[in-house]
Amino acid sequence: AVGEGVDAGLLGRRVWIWEAAWMRPDGTAQEYVVLPAPQAVPLPDHASYDLGACLGIPGFTAHRALTLPGSGPDRLGPGTWAGRTVLVAGGAGAVGNAAIQLARWSGATVITTVSSPEKARLARAAGAEHVVDYRAEDAASAIRAVAPRGVDLVVEVAPAVNAELDQAVLAFGGTVVYYSNDGGNTLTLPVFDQFIAGTRWQGLLVYAVPPKAKAQAVADLTAAVGAGALRVGEAAGLPLHRYPLEKTAEAQRAVQDGTIGRVLVDVGEF
Length: 270
Hints:
The protein has 270 residues and is an alpha/beta fold. The protein has two domains: 8-58 and 211-266, Alpha-Beta Complex (Quinone Oxidoreductase, Chain A, domain 1), CATH 3.90.180; 77-208, Rossmann fold (3-Layer(aba) Sandwich). The chain has eight helices and ten strands. The strands form three sheets. Strands 5-4-3-6-7-8 form a six-stranded parallel β-sheet, sandwiched between helices. The protein has a two-stranded antiparallel ribbon with strand order 1-2.
């Protein structure tokens, strides 16, 4: 159904939705949800519901990291990141997977760090051109071998743990955008090294992204889906783990336990 003043053409259309749980008592582990019209976005015909369910927060986070003022272009799309290098920390994670795919679609050279051969396989499946297992080799040397002048952007999931590495591989004027605190909550940086290199560290909370930037993310993510640049599933480096609605509690535990990939709750037959 649609409310008063909403385009009735949306009735019966397949959509993907975003921020359904933010500042509300419930989310999407239910059969019905009521949202403002801009948060129900038409899903291209060829795109699966699985893909639609996975876009939301990881896609928005990756998009914002790649388009923050001072760190990248205003919009994503073919050629917008051409000639520049992006390092994605944790390339087997949900945000890391989306960042790899969006950066590759936009023409960037993409390097990612992982902690195991299995995660390396997933990161390559996502499209990362260079994968560094930081437990098996010297990560800074391996990254600098690929990007001698340094990387332009780091999409960072564990800033407290990776601060020294990130500073060692950043290009002059490069940016670290961090969206989580995996591995520690205290970030220590050498002040002198920061200002002589002109580098920047920027925190990112996707819920606080300005409305205009969210509208751009919706448009760019939809375009990426339409172009086949965003994919999900094992072959795309993002395994899917399915639970029926009545086992939502088990699904939540799987998320809390750090399951690699995306956890989906099936609410019915489509």
